[in-house]
Design brief:
It is found in: Membrane. By secondary structure, the protein is α+β, with helices and mostly antiparallel strands. The chain is built from ten helices and twelve strands.
């Protein structure tokens, strides 16, 4: 395989990096029933339904009341006209036209002396309805009133109220239909109106969800209208500006600290190494290891200060044995297992830093008498480095937080695992950790295999990656 020039990322690795879990933030869609749009539409629909119900009930009540009054007035007018005719015998002829199909004359003895054609069956019989104001006559409900008929007795006048009942039933049916249809219509209307009104807010939420503070803090676009959404987004943008300024100050401070520590540590490390070579004093050797630890801690701090956006990788194709020799010198006592006879396409310094952090953590957890094993497995698609120690394993309460900066379960700085995962992802790979079933921590670092560089279509244009300056 042809080695890649420094600063050039193979096409297959770019594809693997794009497919790497965690390479970007994915916005999660909120369930419709929990969305602000749905809650606003539901609230609007319920309020509108309540108002429509009250207004409709009022209108129907007034309408039915008016119909009831008209019916009663009509019945009373007819009864009064007939009663007046019986009181004035000369006007009986004129009143005949006002007689209804439901009229009876009840004598003083309680017998029906005369009746209209629909009630002839009651003639010469006792009055059958007593004090009822509504009576059934031939499957018809008749509203009844009584009037004094002068010397003839009592006049009984009825008026069928089937039309009134039908109108009342129609009004109630219309009201019920409106109460059934209105909520659905109002909810759909509110949903579409809310969707249009909150479109800017939803778009801004999607953009804000994709913001990754480790890469960029670009401000959100503002809508044209200066409404509540505009003010909210403007406030978020001001917050992003303050966060970015704070991050810049933190990076500058970390860079200054690392710079101030780097030179003295380099001199101290070289002096201790020369002293160890001359004296072979174990205390000096232990101090040299501490100096190495501090040197790597400053490197981790520098990478944290730079972040992924500023960090550049210098790609080289190196023998796996070269990487093994580096790690063996940095973390003595490591057991190397697997196939170390192949080659690795990587940034050697960064990959050494990541694996050294994992091995140092394993050695710290296992202690001087424990074991730390680094296994390399190769496939056409990826290289897998597995670090297993004989320590107590990962704390159950930390979980994925173990990879966050300054989170540690072993009393260390808490930067090693965070930096190691960052380096793995920059290579297009991933780092995960768990507790081994037989005890101890188990970390797995994967990077794409060098063979992926030959699998891409030659027509794909290569994206250059700047070399380390």
């Amino acid at each position: 395989m042809t080695p890649q020039r420094p600063g050039s990322l193979p096409r297959g690795w770019r594809r693997a990096a794009r497919l790497t879990p965690g390479a970007g933030l994915h916005s999660a869609r909120v369930a419709w029933r929990h969305s602000l749009r749905f809650r606003l539409a539901l609230t609007y629909s319920l309020l509108a339904l309540g108002l429509i119900t009250l207004i409709t009930l009022g209108v129907v009540t007034l309408l039915l009341g008016s119909m009831e009054r008209q019916f009663v007035d009509r019945l009373n007018e007819r009864a009064d006209t007939l009663a007046q005719a019986f009181s004035d015998p000369g006007s009986l002829g004129r009143a005949a036209g006002s007689a209804s199909a439901y009229t009876m004359l009840i004598g003083f003895d309680g017998q029906v002396s005369s009746a209209s054609s629909a009630l002839r069956e009651y003639i010469d019989s006792p009055y059958p309805f007593g004090d009822l104001s509504r009576v059934p006559v031939q499957n018809t409900t008749v509203r009844v009133v009584k009037r004094k008929a002068g010397n003839f007795g009592t006049l009984w006048v009825g008026l069928p109220e089937d039309d009134l009942l039908a109108a009342r039933q129609s009004a109630l049916s219309a009201l019920l239909l409106a109460l059934i249809v209105s909520p659905a219509v109002l909810l759909l209307t509110g949903w579409f109106v809310g969707r249009r009104a909150l479109a800017g807010l939803e778009s801004a939420a999607n953009l804000a969800d994709r913001i990754d503070p480790t890469h960029s803090l670009e401000t959100l676009p503002l809508p044209g209208r200066e409404d509540e959404v505009h003010r909210l987004l403007a406030a978020i943008n001001r917050l992003l500006v303050r966060i970015e300024a704070g991050q810049a100050r933190e990076k500058q401070l970390l860079g200054q600290i690392v710079h101030e520590l780097g030179a003295p540590l380099t001199v101290l490390k070289a002096s201790l190494q020369r002293a160890e070579e001359r004296t072979h004093d174990p205390e000096v050797a232990r101090a040299a290891l501490v100096a190495d630890e501090l040197t790597f801690t400053t490197q981790d701090l520098m990478q944290l200060a730079r972040g992924q956006l500023e960090l550049k990788l210098a790609w080289h194709y190196i023998p796996a044995r070269t990487l093994q020799g580096r790690l063996d010198r940095l973390v003595p006592g490591t057991t190397f297992v697997g196939d170390w006879g192949g080659g690795i396409l990587c940034d050697p310094d960064r990959l050494t830093q990541a694996l050294r952090n994992l091995l140092a953590n394993g050695r710290r957890a296992a202690g001087a008498a424990g074991t730390v094993t680094l296994t390399l497995a190769e496939s056409p698609e990826r290289l897998t480095f597995t670090v297993h120690d004989s320590g107590p394993g990962l704390p159950d309460d930390l979980g994925e937080r173990i990879f966050e900066p300054f989170v540690s379960g072993a009393g260390s700085s808490g930067l090693g695992l965070s930096v190691a995962r960052q380096i793995a992802r920059l290579h297009g790979g991933e780092l995960s950790g768990t507790t081994h079933p037989r005890g101890g921590a188990l970390f797995t670092l994967t990077i794409p295999g060098a063979a992926l560089g030959d699998e891409e279509d030659e027509a794909v244009e290569e994206d250059p990656v700047p070399a380390v300056s």
